[in-house]
Amino acid sequence: MNQTNEFPSYRGTMRYKCLSCGATYPIDALYYTCPDCGGVFLLEDTSFSSLAEKHDGPGWRKIFDARAATKNTALRGIFRFYELMAPVLEAEDIIYLGEGNTPIVRASRELEAYAGQPLAYKNDGQNPSGSFKDRGMACAFSYLRHLVRKHGWKDVITICASTGDTSAAAALYASHVGDPLKSVVLLPKGKVTPQQLAQPLGSGALVLEVPGVFDDCMKVVEYLADHYRVALLNSKNGWRILGQESYAFEVAQWYDWNMGDKAVFVPIGNAGNVTAVMSGFLKLHRLGIIEDLPKIIGVQSSHADPVFKYYDQPAEARIYAPVKVRPSVAQAAMIGNPVSFPRVRFLVDQYEQLGGVFHVVQVREQEIMEGMLRVNRHGHIACTQGGECFAGLLKAREKGFLDPHDLAILDATAHALKFIGFQDMYFSNSFAREYEITPGRELHNAPQELIAASRKEDLDEQAFTREAAERVVARLGLADKHDHY
Ligand SMILES: N[C@@H](CCOP(=O)(O)O)C(=O)O
């Protein structure tokens, strides 16, 4: 085997570290919150600095670039960056369902002219269950499989609360692993799109609906994880964060490890993603794989904005307070008390100490919705959270957070089709008042009847085809084929 396909020999020394009291715990069991103080954990590899002795930055780049061509499925997805993520797994533990390596698509000149900024989308909706959560699940389920194998665990209940993406991903990976895993997902009743509700049902998960919003479901799941033997699959689970760091690694690799003049936009919901993105870039920077840290710009809707509100205060007076959410088209980010907020605060401090730039901007629902419609009219497949990023880009420009030549990399966290009902609401002007969205004419679209069904009954097949075609000609004013352009 060559470097391209060879499974790495490096093994790290990993442990859970509480961000509140600093207590550490072995990784032999699953921990979500610190048994000493209730704080959240990050997973750390205490041997991480030895990676710098093995290779310098260019050396690591070469290894990761070589692996980009691998046919070894244990390295083909997010584990291309094995040494930086969960270097305690064996190849046989790794689950690969095709996650990662999502395309980065540069915007058209027309869209860039509208935005006034160079920009590209990373289409994480092209992951297997249609969202970035698959990155985290690939890692969390691989680790769970490792524990099951090691301890011979039977009857493992995997559980999560979700706005729709996490549940789809958790159910998919659990169904692929199969026995002894059983997937259970808690969803806020009526607040998950029909497409997202269909996903865990199709994967055979037990779907439990709870009145209220995501935050209510999360509390139930946290209670269960504190008192019962369940495997929590939300991003409170540190293995999820590790997998999602691959987003940052892929972005850096795509730009040949040059993150100067780049601004990475991330919508913030439960805050696991922005945590992972920051942590990922910090790891690359520590090993000299990248020289510059990109600007990180978090985006929140004014209907779910606790992290914006925190960073909007002067540094010395910042107080964190959960908010009561209001309906949002960026439904995946409709979260009033993000579980990863302490991780964000911890990592932002490190990021800024190293000269990195971090901001959070707040956008309106109308801007999110029209952001999504506008970018998708220019060849993208952004979900509403992707629209939120575009709105965030316009806001960041307005605030002077970007240099004119900064390339903005926007996160389309999920596939547009998962949230397509919101497009229908815009086109049919049927948003409930609480969304505060008034559809405009510019982005409106609707199907138009070309020819009545009754004409089909009146005419023979040929005549019907001709009449339908002639109506197209009349409507579009088509020129004859023999006329020159
Ligand atoms: N939008 C998320 C909310 C849960 O986030 P997680 O990353 O903590 O699992 C979802 O899709 O459920």
TrEMBL record:
Residues 96-405 form the Tryptophan synthase beta chain-like PALP domain. InterPro entries: Ser/Thr_Dehydratase (IPR050147), Ser/Thr_deHydtase_PyrdxlP-BS (IPR000634), Thr_synthase-like (IPR004450), TrpB-like_PALP (IPR001926), TrpB-like_PALP_sf (IPR036052). It catalyses: O-phospho-L-homoserine + H2O = L-threonine + phosphate. The modification N6-(pyridoxal phosphate)lysine is found at residue 133. Pfam families: PALP (PF00291). Gene3D superfamilies: 3.40.50.1100. GO terms for biological process: isoleucine biosynthetic process; L-serine catabolic process; L-threonine catabolic process; threonine biosynthetic process. Pathway: Amino-acid biosynthesis; L-threonine biosynthesis; L-threonine from L-aspartate: step 5/5. The keyword rRNA-binding does not apply. It comes from the Bacteria. Keywords: Amino-acid biosynthesis, Lyase, Pyridoxal phosphate, Threonine biosynthesis. Its cofactor is pyridoxal 5'-phosphate. The keyword Amino-acid biosynthesis applies. GO terms for molecular function: L-serine ammonia-lyase activity; pyridoxal phosphate binding; threonine deaminase activity; threonine synthase activity. Its EC number is 4.2.3.1. Belongs to the threonine synthase family. NCBIfam families: thrC (TIGR00260). PANTHER family: L-THREONINE DEHYDRATASE CATABOLIC TDCB, THREONINE DEHYDRATASE, MITOCHONDRIAL-RELATED. This is Threonine synthase. It comes from Desulfoplanes formicivorans.
